[in-house]
Amino acid sequence: MVAFIADMLDHLAPLSRARPIVFAVFTAVVASLILRRALRLLYSSRPKPKYVGQRDENGLMTGKGKLPLSNGDFYEGEFIKGMFHGEGLYMFKDGKSYYRGSFKSSMFHGKGEEMYGTSNSKYVGSFKANRRDGHGRIDYGTGGSYVGKWKNGLKHGTGTLKYVNGDKFFGHFENGFKQGAGEYSGRTFRIVGNWTKNHADADCIVHAKKGFDPSHLIGVSEGGPDLTNIQYSQ
């Protein structure tokens, strides 16, 4: 191939003198094609990940096995007809993140646990098509947790959200937001009422002891209206 290119350039030498701009463009295009061809050959020559494990009569991965993936991830567990199916462990290439549990058609599906290495958070519960779905608990790496219902990877349904400072919210969630009836409990107060996209509605009732400082409510409603309906007790 190199000899062919050299011979072609010799024949095009007159063009380089007569029309240097055209010749420069032509040689740039040829160089680009050569580079793409070389990269394609290099990629195709790389060793493919090797599967170690059981196969069915048609040669498809079926049963227990181990499969390193081309993106650097790794799977070990049960297969059916070439897909992750059953119980297994999927380890991400960072070496810290993983999913361990049930698979269906190569997706996280059923009961399992997932560790998120970048945030050091861990979820244990139900999955559906790679997303948290059903009942589950997540402990956040920065502190705090959520226990309750999920849908499509988001908090959805009844649950309890605990914050780093010890406060907690128990109530209804929708598409990841506090939505509907709920109760927020702090060390010195409780907020009872309805919530809209994480904001406590203005008519929520704040239960607190005498001497309570309303400034403690700042930030609790996450940008919602000021809470002025405070009922004091002894």
From TrEMBL:
SUPFAM superfamilies: Histone H3 K4-specific methyltransferase SET7/9 N-terminal domain. It comes from the Eukaryota. This is MORN repeat-containing protein 5. Keywords: Membrane, Repeat, Transmembrane, Transmembrane helix. The chain crosses the membrane at residues 20-39. It holds the Pfam family MORN.
